[in-house]
Write a structure and sequence with these properties.
The complex is a heterodimer. Chain A is an alpha+beta fold. Chain A is built from 17 helices and 20 strands. In chain A, about 35% of the residues lie in helices and about 20% in strands. By secondary structure, chain B is of the alpha+beta class. Classes of the chains: A alpha+beta, B alpha+beta.
Chain lengths: ~475, ~775
């Protein structure tokens, strides 16, 4: 165990302690850290909540094949200890020793992709993250890459044009040449665990599930986090101190995705980006919703376990996973239990988790052909927005044309993710046609009492909740 | 000027090397400023206790109104905006106390200990409430031509109605920031992210009670501004200066994003009522318009904004009998302020909706009603305020754009699509813009420049304009280089600084390049005149057989030469050295004022604009009636920038303005709760367009061969006019909804057309 964190920045290993007198604490964000340095002012704070992307940096971490995985993340949502064992790459690092710009920089500049320039470093880093993957240079992929970067000057078209050119001509860059060395260096760092204790803060990274439970017993009041995209806001927006943190992001058992005979089992610490990759074939509805989750930067950090355990009534993944009849595996030091996700969520930001328990896995049963699934998210802006209303539907059919079981799950309509029970009962035993969909939609509108807030009025929520079932019917029937 | 020149900071931007105010290296004596603001929309301050905060370790100063050494005012035109609240607060977000501390965290902790006893008072929180209680900000304004009442009475057809447009948050990426360094005596150096350094200087000097010559304001670049830093950057600079003055230490004040959104003003919401008379062809005969603007708690620029809304109530249309009445109403909200378009969009969108309604009533394509009402080049060529329209490009642009965008064919395709689709509808709209260029307060149309030539042939150019991303410095550098005949890399544009060029106007009203470009040229002309004379002497002394005339001296390709005798050529730096050794000054100031503009506010008549910029946009959308989601399928824009100084930068302005305008029309919505707290106070709930929201097919063309007489290099202003192209998206959405019943009924589509507004409007047709 070490009190220090180690990471690579500017081509060398940095060791950072948190001893008394240090300007940094374990809840200092990477953005604050970088801006405190004389040579990393390129990273910008636009919002300090992961909504603008001006602070985007790239983290590289070793993969199994000895290479590096590059991920664009919001440095404003990243606590300093999370750098441990990683290479931190900022906009200042992209030029080579001769000062030649990286292709993504060159194209953004030459395509007039920068006006005021304040969002530009973040845009460049998101594109660099894309550059270092195998993702295609299709329009949808580029838009996905930039879904977490706001620009108020250009109208994005020149940025898009630059991205298209740069990503289309990908070749080896200076990072490719250094990749093996950096990976080897990082491997030596990450083998040692980290536990930081200062007079004000405790921050530990358990290296196994067993260690996590030991930590949780020793620090019963500690906040558990993994991606910390939600938790970080307590610091950046509410200025809380978070004295004790157990960071689960290095627990290998929580990072696995496994396929058993009849289900996909996803570790609670799997990132939303990995979830969507795994879901693409077996669960297109989950894939579709996961694609609308935050931005690419946020999806690199945020985990499925965190999204469910947060039990927000507008959590993106909850409705669709409920409709998929996902089960949740919960563990304590020596015992474990599983329960339906329906039973796991008990109220507004309330779950069935008891003291000392941890959500470890989500299990999603594969679907039979008699099941139709649909999922929808209504938000003011398509990308990087919180749902005004979300819905996920599951219709199971028996031998005939009749619906044998209906599950209509809504987010944003009540204090917790909730089934439209009256409409479910109504549909049971009925044929799936327009008349029944419309009748069920009317029931849905009547059975919820949503609120009016910054995102929309209650009337809209009620109307659109019903409409979404009709939209599901229309999509299924091919009616345009 | 056609050679491709990218933004002069582009390479710095992409490598993180560009320096903004918050990036300026500062030494360890820096203090962090913090503002404690009102939690109430309207309240009396009964008592204020700051002792605890002042005594906290790490806190250097806690200031309230009584600690202001100068005058407690920061209103730019009318002095109705206290710098710090005295005994009453008038909006949520109004500054009450300032704190300077060693860290931001300590300043926040100190703020939390300040005890204020408020007595809440009744608040006016909406435009309609303000109108009901007659809370006027000032006298009403009027512009009138013809016999409006009589013409309305005689018109074959009439419509009346109202139109409401909402607030818009600037959402510059860089929040308001200032850094103040104390000098000797009571001199201050203020780095401020401001569009108006001279006014920032004035406000700082007033609150400190020192003369303006003791305050220097400098800005290299802003991280976006859009009008939001025209007056309200002054506030943050004044607060930083007060703290610096109290502590004798450097103080930086950078607003946290949520605080910026809560404390600063927005685009003025407008409520517009009208009655219009027209004939069976849709030709407008008379229009009576009443514009009501929500000014917020203080005057700020509200009357100038109202005036521009009134000037643009006609948009692109000749209306023989027209009356516009304008009023600004006072509410308990942050003072609304300049925002790209400056009232123009609010006036124009209402006019466009009138056209749209007339078309629906007459079962005509709205574009046809637009076309027959356009100003023409014969008799229908004078605005309601009496300005004659010269060089009207509207009819030609209509022809070109309807052809290049294939408007009429696509109109048919859209209608065909809509008959085949029940839940998904498409809409198409073409909207024009005619936008007046000049500050409507005539004396503001002036600019200065200062140009130095050094003996190595390099040149420093200073001018009064500020860089906020628009590429003003890039254009100034191009102009200086072209006029001096030297390469651009010889020209350095230095940060805007009040000690280099004094008494400047804001970089606003799209006039940055027009005014400063002319001022730079004026300075360069003076230098060239001096240099040409010296070089002539030099040539003639060298070889007395030939005689060079000063008027034949040319500046080109880094050379100075006799155009009639190419043997007589020297380098630009040699010319500079000759001047130096002959004791000739190589520094010159330049000045420009826009000629022949005036406006009589009493009669409502005059020629307030130097010229008009024109444009036209066609947008096609697809909407889902069930979810309210819209997709912008294609946008074609044709825009007039005269003979462009830099086509790439101009296209960038057009694309960016369009998307910002489309944001105002579709997703940008400010909401307050019933006690006047902004609900949409962060990007979590206030949504500006993202990359997915731009047209799937986005085509922008500049109008070719349209040189503008009497401007720098025959170019035109470009900052604001293309904002109006965003309106085409709102009208396309309305067109799509209207198609549900074959364009027979008027959709009640809210503004902005959020998914909520679309679903609610569609509901009228579907129920």
């Amino acid at each position: 165990m070490t009190q220090q964190i180690s990471f690579i920045l500017d081509g060398r290993v940095h060791q950072l302690g948190f001893e008394p007198g240090s300007p940094y604490t374990p809840i200092t964000t990477v953005l604050q850290y970088l801006r405190s340095l004389p040579n990393h002012k390129g990273v910008k704070e636009g919002c300090a909540e992961g909504d603008c992307g001006a602070c985007t940096v790239v983290l590289a971490e070793p993969s199994a094949d000895g290479k590096l995985n590059y991920k664009a993340v919001n440095s404003c949502l990243l606590f300093l200890p999370k750098l441990h064992g990683k290479q931190l790459i900022t906009v200042e690092n992209l030029q080579d020793a001769q000062g030649t710009l990286h292709p993504v920089q060159q194209y953004v500049a030459d395509s007039n992709g920068a006006q005021c320039g304040f969002c530009t470093p973040g845009i460049v880093m998101s594109l660099f993250g894309h550059y270092k993957t195998d993702l295609s240079a299709e329009r949808e992929e580029i838009e996905d890459t930039l879904s977490g970067n706001l620009c108020r000057c250009t109208g994005y078209q020149p940025i898009f044009d630059a991205a298209l050119k740069a990503l289309d001509e990908r070749k080896e860059d200076r990072f490719s040449q250094e990749e093996q060395d950096v990976a080897a260096q990082l491997k030596t760092i990450s083998q040692s665990g980290v536990r930081i204790e200062t007079t004000t803060h405790y921050y530990s990274f358990p290296a196994s599930l067993q260690e996590a439970f030991t930590e949780m017993e020793a620090h019963p009041g500690a906040l558990l986090l993994s991606g910390a995209t939600d938790v970080a806001l307590k610091v950046t927006k509410q200025h809380q101190q978070l004295p004790e943190i157990i960071d689960l992001s290095l627990v290998p058992e929580l990072k696995k995705i496994e396929t058993t005979g009849d289900m996909l089992r996803i570790g609670g610490g799997v990132s939303v980006n990995e979830v969507l990759e795994a879901a693409q074939k077996p669960f297109p509805a989950l894939y579709k919703i996961a694609k609308r989750f935050g931005s690419k930067q946020i999806r690199h950090l945020a985990t499925v376990g965190g999204n469910l355990a947060g039990a927000s009534p507008i959590g993106d993944l909850t409705p669709v996973l409920m409709a998929l009849k996902a089960r949740v595996r919960v563990m304590r030091a020596k015992e474990q239990r599983t329960m339906a996700l329906d039973d796991f969520i008990t109220g507004y930001r309330q779950t069935a988790l008891q003291e000392g328990e941890l959500l470890t896995h989500i299990e999603i049963p594969f679907l039979s052909e008699q099941i139709k699934i649909g999922a929808y998210k209504i938000s003011k802006r398509r990308d990087l927005d919180i749902a005004t209303v979300s819905a996920a539907f599951r219709l199971e059919f028996g031998a005939g044309k009749q619906i044998s079981e209906a599950n209509l799950v809504y987010g944003g309509m009540a204090a917790m993710t909730k089934h439209a029970r009256q409409a479910e009962d109504f549909l049971q035993g009925k044929e799936w046609n327009r008349t029944h969909a419309e009748a069920a939609a009317r029931l849905i509108r009547d059975e919820f009492e949503p609120i009016s807030d910054a995102r929309s009025g209650a009337d809209f929520r009620r109307i659109v909740a019903g409409n979404l079932l009709i939209r599901f019917w229309a999509d299924d029937a091919g009616t345009k | 000027m056609s050679s491709k020149t990218i933004h002069q900071s582009a390479y710095k931007h992409v490598s993180g090397a560009s320096v903004y105010v918050d990036d300026i290296p500062v030494h360890n004596q820096l203090l962090h400023g913090y503002v404690l603001y009102s939690p109430h929309a309207h309240a009396a301050i009964r008592s204020l206790k700051t002792e605890k905060a002042a005594n906290m370790p790490g806190v250097a100063a806690v200031l309230s109104a009584k600690d202001i050494p100068g005058i407690n005012q920061m209103g730019p035109i009318v002095h109705d905006e206290p710098c710090l609240a005295e005994d009453e607060v008038h909006f949520v977000g109004q500054a009450i106390c300032l704190i300077a501390a060693e860290t931001e965290e300590r300043a926040r902790q100190a703020a939390a200990t300040i005890e204020i006893d408020f007595e809440e008072l009744p608040a006016v929180l909406s435009l309609k409430q303000a109108m009901a209680v007659q809370s006027l900000m000032g006298p009403e304004r009027k512009i009138e031509r013809g016999q409006v009442q009589q013409a309305l009475k005689e018109a074959p057809l009439r419509l009346n109605g109202s139109f409401e447009s909402g607030a818009q948050e600037h959402w510059y990426l860089e929040t308001q920031t200032a850094l103040c360094l104390p000098g000797e005596d009571r001199e201050y150096m203020v780095y401020s992210s401001t569009q108006h350094p001279s006014e920032t200087q004035a406000v700082v000097s007033e609150v400190l009670g020192i003369p303006r010559h003791a305050v220097t304001v400098e800005i290299r670049r802003m991280g976006g501004a859009f009008g939001g830093k025209e007056t309200q950057a002054n506030h943050v600079a004044a607060w930083a200066a007060l703290l610096s003055n109290a502590t004798r230490r450097p103080v930086k004040l950078r607003l946290f994003r949520d605080d910026d959104q809560i404390m600063t003003g927005k685009r003025h919401p407008f409520y517009i009522r009208y009655e219009v008379g027209f004939d069976e062809q849709g030709r407008i005969l008379a229009l009576d318009v009443e514009q009501n603007a929500n000014g917020g708690s203080a005057t700020d620029l509200s009357f100038a904004i109202l005036e521009r809304a009134m000037f643009h109530a006609d948009n692109a249309y000749y209306i023989p009998n027209m009356r516009v009445i304008g009023r600004v109403w006072k509410t308990n909200l942050p003072s609304n302020t300049a925002f790209r378009g400056f009232g123009g969009p609010q006036g124009i969108v209402a006019m466009e909706n009138i056209i749209d309604r007339i078309a629906r009533q007459l079962s005509l394509d709205p574009l046809e009603v637009r076309r027959i009402n356009f100003y023409d080049m014969y008799k229908r060529d004078t605005t309601h305020y009496g300005q004659k329209i010269k060089q009207n490009h509207l009819p030609a642009m209509y022809k070109q754009l309807t052809a290049s965008a294939d408007y009429f064919e696509r109109r048919k395709l859209v209608e065909a699509f809509n008959t085949q689709h029940e839940f998904v509808k498409r809409g198409l709209a073409c909207t024009p813009v005619k936008f007046g260029i000049s500050f409507t307060t005539a004396f503001l149309n002036q600019a200065g420049a200062l140009v130095h030539v050094y003996q190595d042939g390099t040149v420093q150019v200073n001018h009064g304009g500020t860089e906020m991303g628009q590429g003003l410095h890039t254009k100034m550098r191009q102009i200086a280089a072209a006029e001096l005949g030297v390469d651009q890399d010889r020209i350095l544009i230095t940060p805007t600084n009040t000690s280099k060029v004094p008494n400047t106007s804001a970089t606003a009203a799209s006039t940055g390049s027009d005014l400063n470009g002319m001022a730079v040229k004026n300075a360069v002309d003076k230098l060239k005149f001096r240099m040409a004379y010296q070089v002539t002497e030099y040539f003639n002394q060298m070889d007395e057989q030939n005689y060079t005339l000063s008027k034949h001296i040319m500046f080109k390709n880094n050379k100075v030469f006799d155009a009639t005798n190419p043997d007589r050529t020297i380098s630009f730096e040699k010319a500079a050295q000759i001047c130096y050794f002959n004791q000739i000054p190589l520094s010159a100031t330049g000045f420009y004022k826009t000629p022949d503009i005036y406006f009589d506010r009493e009669t409502g008549q005059g020629t307030p604009f130097h010229y008009f910029a024109y444009g036209m946009a066609v947008s096609e959308v697809e909407i889902d009636l069930l979810t309210g989601q819209h997709t912008l399928l294609r946008t074609d824009i044709l825009h007039d920038v005269g003979d462009s100084v830099n086509p790439d930068l101009d296209i960038g302005q057009i694309q960016g303005a369009f998307v910002q305008g489309a944001g105002w029309c579709t997703m940008e919505e400010c909401k307050w709760d019933e006690s006047g707290h902004l609900l949409t106070h962060s990007p979590d709930t206030y949504k500006i367009p993202g990359i997915h929201d731009i047209p799937r097919d986005f085509r922008v063309q500049l109008l070719q061969k349209a040189p503008n007489e009497g401007t720098i290099r025959q170019s035109k202003a470009v900052g604001e006019p293309p904002f109006m192209h965003g309106l085409s998206v709102w009208f396309a959405i309305k067109d799509a909804i209207s198609s549900i019943d074959g364009h027979k009924r008027e959709p009640e589509l809210g503004f902005p057309a959020t998914n909520e507004a679309i679903v609610m409007a569609a509901k009228q047709f579907l129920d």
